[in-house]
Specification:
It is a single chain. By secondary structure, the chain is mainly beta. It has one helix at about 85-95, and strands spanning about 1-5, 20-25, 30-35, 50-60, 70-75, 80-85, 100-105, 110-120, 125-130, 135-145. The strands form two sheets. Strands 1-10-4-3-2 form a five-stranded antiparallel sheet, covered by helices on one side. Strands 6-5-9-8-7 form a five-stranded antiparallel sheet, covered by helices on one side. The longest helix has 8 residues, at about 85-95. Mean pLDDT is about 90; it is low at about 145-150.
Length: about 150
């Protein structure tokens, strides 16, 4: 099942709360984040997500044919310090550390911020990815986890 969002309706996307990132990549102006094993339930025991796997593609706006706007901020809690890093460095860190999604937010300029925890035991950082999206595509795969009345093909 494929869902497509624009800046006008991106506030209706699934937040991917508590979902573990299994892969992240960037190609040109498209950031892709993959989540697998989405057997996460709400407090009442109902599945949070319609399928077991999703790949989300964030197509970002380009400015004057330059690089798309995609900025990564890491907050180092013990040092009480923020640091900007390149998206490629974040991708490399996710190969060694666990990255868990917990929030997205939309500002008044319709920019999107994705929030994650990144780390391993005893060492956790907060990560935010700032995007200026044009189109967002959720590509759900696998067996449905519950009745799909809220979702359209």
């Amino acid at each position: 099942m494929i869902q497509t969002f624009t800046v006008d309706n991106m506030n209706t996307m699934d937040a991917m709360n508590d979902a573990i990132v299994t892969n992240i990549s960037i190609h040109e102006n498209i950031l892709e984040i993959e989540y697998d094993n989405l057997d996460i339930a709400d407090p009442e025991g109902k599945p949070l997500y319609p399928y077991n796997k999703v790949t989300i593609s964030y197509e970002m706006r380009r400015y004057n044919d330059h690089f798309p706007f995609c900025e990564v901020t890491v907050y180092y809690g013990r040092k009480n310090k923020y640091k900007y890093i390149e998206i490629e460095k974040l991708i490399a860190l996710t190969k060694k550390m666990r990255m868990e999604s917990y929030l997205y937010s939309i500002d008044s300029f319709k920019n999107l911020t994705l929030a994650f925890d990144l780390g391993r035991p005893k060492k956790w950082w907060s990560v935010e990815i700032f995007l200026d999206p044009v189109k967002i595509t959720y590509n759900w795969e696998g067996e449905p986890t519950y009745f799909m009345s809220n979702y359209e093909d």
